Amino acid sequence: MQNDALNDLSFKVIAAAMEVHSQVGPGMLESVYQHCQEEELRLRKIPFLSQAPQAVTYKGRMLDKVLILDFLVANILIIEIKSLETILPVHEAQSVSYLRMSAKPPGLLVNFNVASLKDGIKRKINSKPL
Known about the structure:
Elements: H1 3-24, H2 30-43, E1 48-58, E2 61-73, E3 77-82, H3 89-102, E4 106-111, E5 121-125
Parallel strand pairs: 3-4
Antiparallel strand pairs: 1-2, 2-3, 4-5
């Protein structure tokens, strides 16, 4: 996917998350935001998989383990949903690891437990694919 198309997709997903945040507000469980985000993406006709299984490989070998991605949008953009008081470095590292393990270049870490969602969105880039 070209950078312009990827940026457009990211913008659409962020707009959907902002709508969810404006309707629900902060302070709910992660699972509530997950379901609301699913519905908002459906309403906007943005293709996605929710709770998408991702195979884990190690040194070229497929392991008997899968990661579960909160969202895989258009088979390219990984979205990790959080509802936390503070995003810690471990949460950011998890997002980057998911990108690396899935060989997907971009991702969004979205923390809905903030007063303004613009403060809860972090874009992550996979600079070291496996």
